[in-house]
Amino acid sequence: MSNNYRIGQIVPSSNTTMETEIPAMLTARQLIRPERFTFHSSRMRMKHVNKEELAAMDAESDRCALELSDARVDVLGYACLVAIMSMGLGYHRESQARLAQVTQNNNAAAPVVSSAGALVNGLKVLGAKRIALVAPYMKPLTQMVVDYIQHEGIEVKVWRALEIADNLEVGRHDPARLPGIVAEMDLSDVDAIVLSACVQMPSLPAVPAVEAQTGKPVLTAAIATTYAMLTALELEPIVPGAGALLSGAY
């Protein structure tokens, strides 16, 4: 069996982070495991993070899945958490099934994961019942994300919306600010911390520091997506320096 895998991502056109953090994690994994990865993307148009643009963008996801299946990717990740969550409670299941069918119809069947579904599943893998959450979105969209996660049976005890409307600006947010943001939150009754509930907000460099600072497991949308991709490929979900979920303990 080949040790080479093609990683496909459906990303917003203005996303600048998932094509850096996912490759960074899987490249780091190559230092400790034999599998090798290449990275392939297709883009959906979106500049501002609002419900109207998110809905229009989601309508392009079938085209992106078809394009990526032309490249015969081994796994396909829908890399926009809030686009999925804005389409209604539980929508990640419908989206993943539909996009998987697109790849199958193209005679290039591939498992499909989504950042939205991956974050929910990652929290459940950690056994988290009550969480703290940081998101870059405006407050109404952040509340929608909170409602989506709570609908899946996980209580969001405390959350912070950074209220950055422009998606490029989200990608420019300095991850070094995140430990200070978390330090201002009441974490006394939470099991885990979602340091970035957004695939565009850079956070990977801050994860070890926040775990050390709080003594709690920390994950992000990107970390959860990487875990979902590796498990979909039936590979060991381990990445050095990427937090508890990818520590090898799960």
From TrEMBL:
Keyword Signal: no
Pfam families reported for this sequence: Amdase (PF17645)
Catalytic activities: maleate = fumarate
Keyword field: Isomerase, Lyase
Note: Reaction is initiated by nucleophilic attack of cysteine at the double bond, yielding a covalent succinylcysteine-like intermediate.
Similarity annotation: Belongs to the maleate isomerase family.
Name under which the protein is recorded: Maleate isomerase
Source lineage: Bacteria, Pseudomonadati, Pseudomonadota, Gammaproteobacteria, Enterobacterales
